[in-house]
C-alpha cells in the first residue's frame, strides 16, 4: 500500500499547485514517461481523436495551457485514498460563475514515488454540479 507521506505529498502538489497557479509544484511528482488522460484532452489539443498526453514535457505544456485557461477556477481537495500502487484524489472545482463541479483523479505511482499515470474524471451529469 502507498504510504501516507506519499499521499500527502501528492495531495499538496495537486491542491497547492493548481490553486497557486504553480506549474513547477504541480509537475514535480511526475515521472518522465507519465501518461495523462482527461475528458478535456481532445478539446484542449484540438484533436477529437486524442485522449491522452504522453511524456513529462508534453504534460507540462498541457498543464501550462490549462493553468492559463482556467486561472479563475479554484479547487478544494475533499479526500485522498491510497491503494497498492494508486492514489485517488477527490475534489471540487469551484467555477467562476459560482457553480461547483466534482472530480476525481487517479494517479499510479512507481516504486520510486513518481507518478507514471494520471487519469482525471468528471461527472457527465450536470445535475451533479452544485450552484
User: Percent of residues in helical segments?
Assistant: 25-40%
Q: Which structural class should the secondary elements be placed in?
A: alpha+beta
CATH architecture: Roll
The ordered string of helix (H) and strand (E) elements is HHEHEHEEEE
Largest sheet: 6 strands, mixed
CATH class: Alpha Beta
Number of helices: 4
Global geometry:
globular
How many distinct domains? Answer: 1
* Oligomeric state, counting identical vs distinct chains: single chain
Low-confidence stretches: none
Distance between the termini: 37 Å
List the strand order in the largest sheet: 2-1-6-5-4-3
CATH topology: Nuclear Transport Factor 2, Chain: A
Count the strands?
6
Q: Compute the average pLDDT.
A: 92
Structure in words:
This protein has helices at 4-19, 23-27, 41-45, 56-69; strands at residues 30-37, 52-54, 74-82, 86-94, 100-109, 115-122. Strands 2-1-6-5-4-3 form a six-stranded mixed β-sheet. It has a single domain, classed as Nuclear Transport Factor 2, Chain: A. The mean pLDDT is 92. 31% of the residues lie in helices and 36% in strands. Strand 3 (74-82) and strand 4 (86-94) form a beta hairpin. It starts with a helix and ends in a 9-residue tail after the last strand. With 131 residues, it is an alpha+beta fold.
Short description:
The chain is an alpha+beta fold. The protein has helices at residues 4-19, 23-27, 41-45, 56-69; strands at residues 30-37, 52-54, 74-82, 86-94, 100-109, 115-122. It contains four helices and six strands; from the N terminus they run H-H-E-H-E-H-E-E-E-E.
Amino acid at each position: 500500500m502507498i504510504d501516507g507521506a506519499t499521499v500527502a505529498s501528492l495531495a499538496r502538489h495537486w491542491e497547492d499547485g493548481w490553486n497557486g497557479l504553480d506549474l513547477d509544484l504541480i509537475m514535480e511528482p511526475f515521472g518522465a514517461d507519465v501518461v495523462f488522460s482527461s475528458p478535456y484532452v481532445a478539446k484542449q489539443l484540438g484533436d477529437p481523436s486524442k485522449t491522452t498526453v504522453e511524456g513529462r514535457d508534453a504534460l507540462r505544456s498541457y498543464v501550462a495551457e490549462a493553468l492559463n485557461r482556467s486561472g479563475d477556477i479554484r479547487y478544494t481537495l475533499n479526500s485522498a485514498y491510497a491503494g497498492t500502487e494508486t492514489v485517488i484524489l477527490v475534489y471540487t472545482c469551484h467555477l467562476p460563475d459560482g457553480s461547483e463541479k466534482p472530480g476525481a483523479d487517479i494517479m499510479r505511482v512507481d516504486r520510486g514515488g513518481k507518478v507514471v499515470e494520471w487519469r482525471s474524471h468528471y461527472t457527465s451529469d450536470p445535475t451533479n454540479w452544485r450552484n
